[in-house]
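Project outcomes to date are best conveyed with an example. Our students and postdoctoral researchers have been running inverse folding experiments weekly, and each run begins with a structure described purely in tokens. The record below, which covers 813 residues, was selected by the lab manager from last quarter's runs and is presented without edits.
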């Protein structure tokens, strides 16, 4: 035997030995995936967080928490750390059974509309099985509905009282913008402004078609393309529809004498259409304004202030940048008011001054300005400039506007800065290589700021958020909720207490109560996963690998089949979303499993991992890595991570790599098949913006960039050029399934259809699924889509093809 023959024989022997060690998966486990459908999981796992509802006049809060044992209602007093039930479930069930005459038990009390009233009592409703006859307030004709009983529980005594002659209150119409003094209710009709008083708003609450309602018109010159407020721009709008009241989108002054609004002129913006083929009695054309990147026909924004005493409007000059955006700053909504029937939208400022921002079209320039109702122009307080794009957060004012807290990424990391009322920088409040996410509360007396931040704690996943406090001058920075978890804090309006919900992908969520010094006052709840584990659930595994540059840490999660066998060889699927506004990598445990845990059960290793240019909660460099290269920037990292994991884990078959994503992930997964056609073998790409030149201007221009050019004549134009998936359709080698909803008015179906056109012209075989009547999220066809996706990966990665016409797993979902 020659040396060459011996060498070949040794290679074959080594290959056989390796294959003997790892047996490829050949059968798809549909039954295991069906076991973890969303409907089934929701019957096994209930509450995963404590959502505190703060009292109005104390630091107490109440919350509802559901477990397999029932639904429980609690009051917590942070001053003592005491948690007590609002009522005894068994006792209440017996009392309600006596009154309503329907049988209830401790685990099954159908409480609805639970609400705190005056910090003294709770009210709620119970719907009986008994039908009663009532008069329809619109038609006047009798109709039948279930009887609703109203009840009160006194907090001090615990006594239950039935509310006699109870009628379930109707919510106020959402179109009404109520002034802080409740004197005016402003709304829009057919793109003009109107107002009524509260007495007539109450009439509209009962019956919007009440002919005795008195209202007054404020503007007359509004049109569909340059409106005051909103209207109905349906292609088939009738005269009756035009008269319907709609939202005005205004912001009130604190004294209710004026309101501000941004009026948009969209007359130059071109139309886009989708056809609702399921509309009855015949298919219907939907028309809407849609500004695509690079187009010169942009909307123009105008800042108006309306005086309710003189009933006159004036425009305040804001011109600085061509095609700029305008945003009016609003006062933070108080959490203690979150259940108020009426909530007021009030501008940030005083009765005559308010704050407004203007943003250039290329997003590289942001001005924070002060507007005065008596002056025709604004005063610039802060200018932010950057060569990529500037991002901002809500501003917090202090001492009646004598100071304000500003968020900026000017150093390459997001931090807080203290300014005086004239826009002079007093000092940086935070600094260093970490990301401040947002201000959650301010104590102006103690001059303390409470904020959330990422990447400050050494050794932790940088996406884990924590709560901190710091003095206005930057001193005494302190971590308030330590622990190697992702923390989501709900803070009281005064910042004195917060509820901390924390977990990782591999821990059950827990909830604790802290004070503003970081002292834990009480452990509140832990999510019960017992029933989930009982049917075979297992936590996923976290991992960290280096990116394609060999330097940048990437953080990911690996999801294995719950019947995982280390001697098997599994295909690997990457679930992707490229960012840049977020990454599809869970930091906390969640019961939303469809694209990760559940997909793995069919017989795959599923991973999610970040990529350079993804998540904004890291350095500005990391976040903007893909600026100017929006198609390809994240693909190298996706490929490298799969290779490194396969090298580490012998159960991963690197020759069978699948990829899936939705929206931006649909775009990315197809791009991966075309940029690395020999590596990625199968993709399911849903609702993908494959052609970012026809996706909306705001996302595409921001994250890819647009070049502002000024001619010798002083004219400003915008140049936009971006790589598209259709340009490299000829590269396709593997199996690709494209999926889209046919009335998607976010990512227009043309994105997928142009990709289809390019593939056909390139003489490629591929698969396609259009979901009729579905928008961007696939709605009630989501479960069907999951199984079609599972079929596709099963056939082309495992070799197990399902041929039956019906999907039996959906019948018992």
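After processing, the design step wrote out the following sequence:
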């Amino acid at each position: 035997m020659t040396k060459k023959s011996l060498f070949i024989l040794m290679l074959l022997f080594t290959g056989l030995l390796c294959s003997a060690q790892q047996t490829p998966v050949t059968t798809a486990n549909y039954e295991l995936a069906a076991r973890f459908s969303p409907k089934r999981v929701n019957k096994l796992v209930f509450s995963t967080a404590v959502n505190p509802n703060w009292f109005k006049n104390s630091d107490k809060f109440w919350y509802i928490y559901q477990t397999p044992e029932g639904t429980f209602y609690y009051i917590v007093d942070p001053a003592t750390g005491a948690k007590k039930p609002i009522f005894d479930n068994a006792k209440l069930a017996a009392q309600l059974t006596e009154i309503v005459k329907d049988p209830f038990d401790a685990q099954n009390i159908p409480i609805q509309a639970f609400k705190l009233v005056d910090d003294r009592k709770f009210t709620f409703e119970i719907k009986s099985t008994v039908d009663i006859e009532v008069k329809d307030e619109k038609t006047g004709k009798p109709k039948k509905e279930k009887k609703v009983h109203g009840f009160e529980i006194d907090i001090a005594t615990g006594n239950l009282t039935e509310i006699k002659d109870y009628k379930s209150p109707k919510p106020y119409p959402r179109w009404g913008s109520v002034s802080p003094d409740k004197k005016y209710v402003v709304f829009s009709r057919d793109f003009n402004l109107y107002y009524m008083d509260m007495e007539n708003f109450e009439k509209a609450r009962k019956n919007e078609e009440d002919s005795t309602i008195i209202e007054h018109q404020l503007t007359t010159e509004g049109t569909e393309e340059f409106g005051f407020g909103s209207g109905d721009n349906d292609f088939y709008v009738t005269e009756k529809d035009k008269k319907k009241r709609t939202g005005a989108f205004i912001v009130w002054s604190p004294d209710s004498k004026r309101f501000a609004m941004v009026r948009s002129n969209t007359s130059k913006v071109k139309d886009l259409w989708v056809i609702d083929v399921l509309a009855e009695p015949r298919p219907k054309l939907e028309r809407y304004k849609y500004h695509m990147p690079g187009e010169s026909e942009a909307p123009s924004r105008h800042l108006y202030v309306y005086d309710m005493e003189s009933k006159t409007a004036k425009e305040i000059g804001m011109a600085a940048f061509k095609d700029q955006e305008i945003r009016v700053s609003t006062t933070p909504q108080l959490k203690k008011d979150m259940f108020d029937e009426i909530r007021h939208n009030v501008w940030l400022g005083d009765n005559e001054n308010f704050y407004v921002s203007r943003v250039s079209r290329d997003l590289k320039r942001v001005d924070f300005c002060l507007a005065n109702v008596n002056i025709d122009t604004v005063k610039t307080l802060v200018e932010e400039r950057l060569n990529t794009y500037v991002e901002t957060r809500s501003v917090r004012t202090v001492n009646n506007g004598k100071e304000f807290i500003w968020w900026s990424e000017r150093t390459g990391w997001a931090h807080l800065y203290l300014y005086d009322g004239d826009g002079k920088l007093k000092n940086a409040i935070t600094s260093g290589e970490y990301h401040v996410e947002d201000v959650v509360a301010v104590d102006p007396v103690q001059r303390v700021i409470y904020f959330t931040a990422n990447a400050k704690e050494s050794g932790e996943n940088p996406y884990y958020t924590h709560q901190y406090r710091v003095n206005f001058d930057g001193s005494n920075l302190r971590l308030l909720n330590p622990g190697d978890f992702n923390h989501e804090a709900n803070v009281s309006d005064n910042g004195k207490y917060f509820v901390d919900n924390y977990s990782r992908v591999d821990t059950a969520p827990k909830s604790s109560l802290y004070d503003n010094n970081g002292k834990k006052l009480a452990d509140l709840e832990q999510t019960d996963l017992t029933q989930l584990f009982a049917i075979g659930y297992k936590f996923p595994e976290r991992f960290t690998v280096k990116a394609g540059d060999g330097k940048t840490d990437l953080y990911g999660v690996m999801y294995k089949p719950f019947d995982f066998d280390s001697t098997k060889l599994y295909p690997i699927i990457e679930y992707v979303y490229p960012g840049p506004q977020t990454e599809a990598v869970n930091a906390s445990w969640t019961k939303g499993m469809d694209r990760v845990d559940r997909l793995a059960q069919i017989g795959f290793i599923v991973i999610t991992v970040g990529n350079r240019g993804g998540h904004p909660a890291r350095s500005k460099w990391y976040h903007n890595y893909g600026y100017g290269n929006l198609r390809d920037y994240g693909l190298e990292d996706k490929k490298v991570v799969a290779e490194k994991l396969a090298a580490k884990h012998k159960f991963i078959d690197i020759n069978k790599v699948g990829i899936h994503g939705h929206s931006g992930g649909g775009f990315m997964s197809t791009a991966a098949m075309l940029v690395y056609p020999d590596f990625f073998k199968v993709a399911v790409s849903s609702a993908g913006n494959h052609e970012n030149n026809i996706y909306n201007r705001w996302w595409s221009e921001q994250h890819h960039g647009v070049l502002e050019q000024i001619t010798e004549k002083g004219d400003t134009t915008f140049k936009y050029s971006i790589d598209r998936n259709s340009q490299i359709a000829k590269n396709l080698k593997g199996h690709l399934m494209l999926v889209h909803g046919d009335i998607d008015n976010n990512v227009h179906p043309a994105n997928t259809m142009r990709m289809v056109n390019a593939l056909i012209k390139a003489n490629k075989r591929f698969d396609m699924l259009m979901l009729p009547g579905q928008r961007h999220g696939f709605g009630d066809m989501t479960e069907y889509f999951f199984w079609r996706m599972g079929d596709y990966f099963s056939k082309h990665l495992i070799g197990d093809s399902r041929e039956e016409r019906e999907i039996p797993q959906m019948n018992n979902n």
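Residues 3-21 form the longest helix (19 residues). Confidence is low (pLDDT under 50) at residues 11-19. The training component of this project remains on track.
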